[in-house]
UniProtKB/TrEMBL annotation:
It comes from Halomonas fontilapidosi. PANTHER family: CONSERVED COMPONENT OF ABC TRANSPORTER FOR NATURAL AMINO ACIDS-RELATED, HIGH-AFFINITY BRANCHED-CHAIN AMINO ACID TRANSPORT ATP-BINDING PROTEIN. The lineage of its organism: Bacteria, Pseudomonadati, Pseudomonadota, Gammaproteobacteria, Oceanospirillales. Pfam families: ABC_tran, BCA_ABC_TP_C. This is Urea transport system ATP-binding protein. GO terms for cellular component: plasma membrane.
Amino acid sequence: MSFLQSLTDRERVFDFLIPASSPVDVRHGPILYLEDVTVSFDGFKAINDLNLTIDDGELRCIIGPNGAGKTTMMDIITGKTRPDRGSVWFGSRHNLLAMNEPDIASLGIGRKFQKPTVFEALTVFENLELAMAADKRILPTLTARMTGETRDRIEEVLVTIGLTELRQRPAGILSHGQKQWLEIGMLLMQRPRLLLVDEPVAGMTEQEMERTAELLTGLAGKGKQSVVVVEHDMGFVRSIARTVTVLHQGSVLAEGSMDQVSNDPKVVEVYLGADPDEEAA
Ligand SMILES: Nc1ncnc2c1ncn2[C@@H]1O[C@H](COP(=O)(O)OP(=O)(O)OP(=O)(O)O)[C@@H](O)[C@H]1O
């Protein structure tokens, strides 16, 4: 590629645009890489030689029966649980096993737990504002200049999560689904590189599930976020999944398209049963 062509290459991230504190080399390769990771609790291997690679901009669904190790895997990525052995890398530069939880979060790894934890007495707008204020990377001296930028970012996020109309309403009046979207929005305020989302559609109406599918598929993409979704609802997984990883007994049992994994006899045997859509949560 010529220099002139490279200037117009929208995928290209110029070195000088990557802040000094920038977390990851987002220009190529996998964004998350787990190799031979094992963790035991009282001698029981919850994660057993786990290998997993997530590409930049990918939307990956992780499924698996209860106790397969999905939550433990997320805990390892975010630094909450230390594995006994193995390696976990974010981009090509960051050894996550050498970092603590806050440092991992500040690299741009955001986690959304199953239950929404928005501040109910604050407005939707204020919740987003607070999420930005929690970003320790913003220097106090830049605050005045950041205010306008923060407002713009909030507007942008409100559109993404579909809550523009409700911006001045207290978060307490939102439906369950809307609270989940607001919480995803709060993570987006910090422009994460990787979002880990735990059972996003549990307790949602059909309509909310459809909207969540649109939201998550829209978030993933090159130059945007990579999204890892752990979900039990097979209908939902089918509606968003490109690549599905099936965990079983702490290892990857199968990986591929939803059709590939749901026709894999190993998966049928341990998890999906005869009809994947009838899988119990
Ligand atoms: N802190 C812990 N101490 C002891 N055992 C644990 C601990 N955390 C997880 N485990 C065990 O490790 C295994 C994997 O649990 P994990 O919660 O990761 O599974 P999961 O796939 O997320 O399950 P679910 O779908 O039910 O949430 C389970 O057998 C669980 O009981």
